Amino acid sequence: MKKQNKVYLSLALAAMLLCALSVTAFATGTGGDPLTVINKLSDFIFGLIRAVGMILLGWGIVQVGLSLQSHDPSQRSNGFLTLAGGIIITFTKEILALITG
What we know:
Number of helices: 4
Helix content: over 70%
Number of strands: 0
Radius of gyration: 18 Å
Shape: elongated
Oligomer: single chain
């Protein structure tokens, strides 16, 4: 049963990574505004940060679920901390927009 959980979690993590890290790239014209290029790079970097946050969010949900099954309070607290960190990392761009105005 433990081996099946490990295999399932590995496959789920691989599928999540595959979906989260696949990015469609569209070619633009040769001339472009440098500010547009920087904004696209910023969007790409925030997309990667969001993908990492989603992975942490998923892992936190798995940890909380496993802790509820095994009645392990330390794993439950780690799961909730991972879940909270994943939420914060996922919404980093929006949080920074709120802070900077």
